[in-house]
Amino acid sequence: MTIALTGDDLTLSQFAAAALGNAPVALADAARQRMEAARAVIDRVVASETTVYGVNTGFGDLAQVRIPLADIRRLQVNLVRSHACGVGPPLGPAETRAMILLRANALAKGRSGVRPVVADTLCRMLADGVLPIIPAQGSVGASGDLAPLAHLALVTIGEGEALYRGERLAGIEALRRAGITPLALEAKEGLALLNGTQGMLALLAIALLDAETLADTADVALALSLDALRGTPAAFDDRIARARPHPGARRTARNVARLIAGSAIRESHRAGSLDPRVQDAYSLRCGSQVHGAARDALAEIRRIVEIELNSATDNPLVFSEEDEVLSGGNFHGQPLAMAADHMAVALATLAGISERRIDRLTNPHGSLLPPFLTEQPGLNSGFMMAQVTAAALASENKALAAPHSVDSIPTSGGQEDYVSMGMSAARRLRPMLENTRHVLAIELLAACQGLDLLAPLHTGPEAEKAHRLVRSVAEKYTSDRPHAPDIAAVAALVASGAFAALLR
Hints:
Blueprint: E1 3-5, H1 12-19, E2 25-27, H2 29-48, H3 72-83, E3 87-90, H4 93-108, H5 116-128, E4 130-132, E5 135-137, H6 146-156, E6 161-164, E7 167-170, H7 171-178, H8 189-194, H9 198-228, H10 238-243, H11 247-260, H12 282-285, H13 287-309, E8 317-319, E9 324-326, H14 334-362, H15 384-400, H16 422-427, H17 429-453, H18 461-471, H19 484-496
Helix pairs in contact: 1-4, 3-6, 4-5, 4-9, 9-11, 9-13, 9-14, 9-17, 11-13, 13-14, 14-15, 14-17, 15-17, 17-19
């Protein structure tokens, strides 16, 4: 089914369908009418020669330079060309599709003053698979993601480079093969294509979907580790969660309690047990509080992303109802930059506590399991180095979690004197997601090895489903073999959402 872009009601699920899949999109009729009304305002401004930023003036610190009527179209093309100065590796296909989708939807809102054909062209590029080559670096997150969006805009006018059906081509050739007519930019249209937060938003929204999957997976890993370490489920009693009712903590507590319900592995906490432990370590006992804080962070980030999906983020904005054009700062990426920083902390937290549980599973000094989860320690090293890998990844995440949103640097002759660094804040999430995914894969492997070593006792029926998932791609570790293939296979299952689906 075609997704109708209105600028007002794009959902995250629709975003995923179009950006990560190939769901078709098209401009809604109501959006087309709003865009035409806003365009009429811009046409009147041009005709009246009233001074309006970006329509008949220069940009940034050059805003005081008045542009003659004869040069207005050239102004827009020059803007796109001059701002296409990105460097570094290009964004991936999903990230590029997301940027095209989000820019089209922002224009559909009818506040940018561009013709409907501009949004139509973006929709056609999505439908026909014309994906601009967009270098990932070069944006400071205000005025929006200028350099990345300029590389996108270059292709719409038949310049730059694009991928078309897997082949890297000149932008004009990619459009020709797809049967798309290049845009001839009118007043303000170049600025409207560049001036927005769609670079950082594309990366943040994709990262959010992955992070939510990891949060669910972390709960599954926690439940398996708790049972493998013969921990008590008492800490996950809903009465405790209700006494401090943070939504994320309650959800994790419910997840863990449901997964291990019916487990036979409880002897170490029964009366008369030989287990000397009085309470479980924090990485187990406080799992719902720690995972829950990450969950609550992701819930807030989702709220921010859902607002931004349907926001007008360029400048100036056109209010056709009052026949006014107003300059403001909706292009500033601070809300998204801070959200990306918050997500980075959440990911570092999930990976950090997971690594601590891996250590408890493998460390012979307190696990009540064979050293390093091998039945022949010494001859075999077991999971010794797998824990080291998890430690390396968790520590890397800590460094990557350093905030970007406070690292402003003035640009454009001091006119743009406080910027968000939102694009770099969002770009660093991908390696953090990969690190966290691999740490959780190692924990799932280690926890399942611990459960196997407790046979014939079994975990709960729901947790056993997760155990079978792991064993479907990685057999029990009986003697030393490379861990890397097992980690990769389980990480792929994590990325697919297979473990997260167990909680639905």
